[in-house]
Amino acid sequence: MNRIIPFDISGDGRVFVVMDANCLLCAMGARWIAHNDRHDVFRIVPADSALGASLLRRQGLDELDPESWLLIDAVGAHQSLDALMRAGVHLGGLWQVLGVLQLLPRCWRDWLYHVAARNRYRLFGKADMCRMPDPAIRRRLVQ
User: Fold this and answer.
1) Residue 8 falls within a domain, yes or no?
2) What is the pTM of this model?
């Protein structure tokens, strides 16, 4: 269930994405964001960092819950596939096509995200996003 609570934690239009720093799928998501963020607005926050845990708790989420993927922008906080669609809006161009996911009923979107999140280590493996040598990712990491 998504709750949209308007707030802008940076005050300067930054977009914060809170994700599991140990998940390969999340690491691939971080790489996708870093290499498509032409306006340098995204900041990536590991869920297990103090800031990440605080942001998740503020939205009523558990930092240990694998379904806790959060995007925070000036409009509010977005979870799961809604966060992915919102990332597409911020990245612009072709990535806005992610909005087509809205055509799926919410229960299907939530179920798809739930299945992927609960099985992410088994399906995709693990990676340490914070130790990735990619400078585009490291520059965006906020811990």
Assistant:
1) no
2) 0.81
User: Is 75 a member of any domain?
Assistant: yes
Amino acid in position 48: D
Mode of pairing for the β-strands spanning 15-19 and 42-46? parallel
In sequence order, what are the beta bridge partners of 46? 19
Tally of structural domains, the chain: 1
Alpha-carbon dihedral 22, 15, 117, 129, rounded to 10 degrees: -10
Residues 69-106 pLDDT 10s: 899 998 899 988 888 889 999 998 888 888 888 889 98
Helix (H) or strand (E) run with residue 43 in it:
strand 42-46
Q: From the CB of residue 25, how many other CB atoms can be counted at a distance below 10 Å?
A: 20
Residue at 4 is within a domain:
no
CB contact set of 100 (below 8 Å; sequence gap of 6+)? none
